């Protein structure tokens, strides 16, 4: 590429940047205010979440060694108006979690990085049997293999 082409390209990029700024500059205040409003709204949604703790779940993690068990305790985050519904679905959630954890090999959940994948899979499964509005997030409060 010749020097002339490079200078021409740089000139076009500069002109485009100046033109873009000239068009957006009068609206930058409005754009920033809207962005801040959205951030405040998201922060408000998170603070309005309630948590529901499921009863502890004990699952044998090895078919060859049934003494080795995974003790799993988790809490579900949901809007406060759904707490009664969460309570009524607790047995279903426990069953879904137990079934999934039984299908996972110990080697798949030994590494701390794998715990994030486990959380993601559990969240997806709980949202599938209920709804994404009901189960917003899950928190692993205890995770012990012994």
Automatic annotation (TrEMBL):
Q: What job does this protein perform?
A: Controls the rotational direction of flagella during chemotaxis.
Q: What is its main location?
A: membrane
Q: How does it sit in the membrane?
A: Single-pass membrane protein
Q: Where in the cell is it found?
A: Cell inner membrane; Cell membrane
Question: Which keywords does UniProt give here?
Answer: Cell inner membrane, Cell membrane, Cell projection, Chemotaxis, Cilium, Flagellar rotation, Flagellum, Membrane, Transmembrane, Transmembrane helix
Per the record, a Pfam family? FliL
Q: Please give the name of this protein.
A: Flagellar protein FliL
**Which family does the entry's similarity section mention?**
Belongs to the FliL family.
